[in-house]
């Protein structure tokens, strides 16, 4: 009895299709099966290759989009840090100016009080 499981030239576990085709009643179908199986394997390989190409393209697009986002974020962060430093500088200078103006207002108030007191003393001397 021929089972077709005898080792073939390649030494694989695959049946020896040539022997099966020689001795079995469905010998014509074996060649169709082998051709269809080969076509299926080729199509399967082509599908996986296409999926790899699509995956690579999607990965490249995702990387490009991510790079745009990173670049935008970095520019925005740099701009925000620069604005923050500018705002801090303006706040510090405004605070210093406010303190200087407060001192000048206090000095002016003292001078005005002194002038007013002097005016009152002069008026008091003229009346009395």
Overall shape: it is rod-shaped
Helical stretch count? Answer: 2
Q: How many whole angstroms does the radius of gyration measure?
A: 48 Å
Low-confidence stretches: none
Number of strands: 0
Largest sheet: none
Task: Work out the strand percent.
Answer: under 5%
What's the SSE pattern?
A: HH
Count of folded domains? 1
Distance between the amino and carboxyl termini? 153 Å
What is the structural class? mainly alpha
Q: Name the helicity range.
A: over 70%
Mean pLDDT: 86
Can you describe this structure?
This protein has 2 helices and no strands. It has 128 residues and is an all-alpha fold. The protein has one domain (17-127). Helix 1 (17-23) packs antiparallel against helix 2.
SSE topology:
Elements: H1 17-23, H2 27-127
Helix pairs in contact: 1-2
């Amino acid at each position: 009895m021929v089972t077709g499981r005898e080792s073939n030239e390649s030494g694989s576990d695959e049946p020896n299709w040539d022997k099966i085709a020689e001795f079995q009643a469905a010998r014509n179908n074996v060649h169709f099966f082998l051709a269809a199986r080969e076509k299926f394997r080729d199509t399967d390989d082509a599908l996986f290759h296409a999926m790899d190409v699509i995956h690579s393209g999607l990965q490249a697009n995702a990387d490009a989009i991510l790079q745009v986002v990173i670049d935008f974020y970095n520019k925005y962060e740099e701009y925000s840090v620069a604005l923050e430093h500018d705002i801090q500088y303006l706040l510090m200078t405004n605070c210093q100016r406010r303190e200087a103006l407060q001192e000048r207002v206090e000095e002016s108030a003292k001078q005005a009080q002194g002038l007013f007191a002097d005016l009152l003393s002069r008026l008091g001397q003229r009346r009395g």
